[in-house]
Amino acid sequence: SNPSLLILPGDGIGPEVMAEVRKIIDWFGAKRGLAFDVSEDLVGGSAYDVHGVPLADETMAKAQEADAVLLGAVGGPKYDDLDFSVKPERGLLRLRKEMDLFSNLRPAQCFDALADFSSLKRDIVAGLDIMIVRELTSGVYFGEPRGIFEEGNERVGINTQRYTESEIERVARSAFELAMRRNKKLCSMEKANVMESGILWREVVTRVGKDYPEVQLSHMYADNGAMQLVRAPKQFDVILTDNLFGDLLSDCAAMLTGSLGMLPSASLGAPMANGRPKALYEPVHGSAPDIAGQGKANPIACILSFAMALRYSFDQGAEADRLEAAIEQVLADGVRTGDLLAEEGVAPVSTAQMGDAIVA
Ligand code: NAI
Ligand code: MG
């Protein structure tokens, strides 16, 4: 049977960008003989409107069964006043939590045609292609004790950075597997100089590295890592880091490359029966209510998220390369959605025109 893909377009520009992904999927079916069992369902506000919850149990069950899930975006002003328990983003959080997606992949890739969009000089970023692997389910955002407590005559706010060996080991393994598929170079970032969790992190990553002797492993303090990312990002290939440092470093790396409309992501969990990890792919951007319904959204972030699914869930690395090359070509030809336009006088293309150009 064909590999299965569950599509959850969501809210705002989610359905608009997902329509362009559907064109790409149809093209792969027609021209490359690559067929998927695609099903579509609701998440976020659109699910709330129908079911009264942002993710129905049936949808959750489908996500657990699928070889991969591709999500558009959730949220919007219409849902801002909903009770916390049914807010659109709770649908996304439920998916991440119940699928136990502990490894968050955030590529920072700079297409040559867009290098002038970066806040950095062209030669520092042109051709950049790095991947940050962020631990997503543990660390200081979840560790206990946490809270605001009375202490003497004042209050104290407490969070705890806590990592077990097995939590470090599983995300490290996913980063090494990724490094094996890329350029066999991995830099792990923590602050072992001042943090106990950092000492353990470095020890466990080094131990896991023994299983991947071909991968060139290095370690760096995360503050230096932030500096190096801006000074000379091309020295890196895969960067592995914890939840907190990964939050900061991945946002920093993302902005090396320009527009939010270009950034894909993947969140991976434990291997399934087919040997591939449980996986949720989604663009980094939100539902962009300011441009929703106007055909202005850039579909590339969502299309690149599908390219990641081809590579990491469907073992179709060459087809993912083909798709990325098409995007590169379209950008080199000067095709631009509004978010990619710097100068006046150039007419932007619509969401659908961008999708059509990539298919062509
Ligand atoms: P946003 O990412 O939706 O938009 C930020 C800015 O970037 C806007 O000006 C928007 O027009 C622009 N933009 C974003 N994606 C674009 C694209 N593909 N093409 C062209 N321009 C694009 O973030 P914002 O405005 O903070 O949040 C809007 C809504 O989205 C909120 O309800 C928020 O909760 C939700 N959200 C959902 C996320 C998700 O589903 N993973 C992530 C972030 C926000
Ligand atoms: Mg962040």
Automatic annotation (TrEMBL):
It comes from the Bacteria. PROSITE patterns: IDH_IMDH. GO terms for molecular function: 3-isopropylmalate dehydrogenase activity. Its EC number is 1.1.1.85. Pathway: Amino-acid biosynthesis; L-leucine biosynthesis; L-leucine from 3-methyl-2-oxobutanoate: step 3/4. Residues 4-358 form the Isopropylmalate dehydrogenase-like domain. The record marks 141, 191 as: Important for catalysis. It is found in: Cytoplasm. Its main location: cytoplasm. Binds 1 Mg(2+) or Mn(2+) ion per subunit. It catalyses: (2R,3S)-3-isopropylmalate + NAD(+) = 4-methyl-2-oxopentanoate + CO2 + NADH. Its cofactor is Mg(2+); Mn(2+). Substrate binds at residues 96, 106, 134, 223. Keywords: Amino-acid biosynthesis, Branched-chain amino acid biosynthesis, Cytoplasm, Leucine biosynthesis, Magnesium, Manganese, Metal-binding, NAD, Oxidoreductase. Catalyzes the oxidation of 3-carboxy-2-hydroxy-4-methylpentanoate (3-isopropylmalate) to 3-carboxy-4-methyl-2-oxopentanoate. The product decarboxylates to 4-methyl-2 oxopentanoate. HAMAP family: LeuB_type1. Homodimer. Belongs to the isocitrate and isopropylmalate dehydrogenases family. LeuB type 1 subfamily. This is 3-isopropylmalate dehydrogenase.
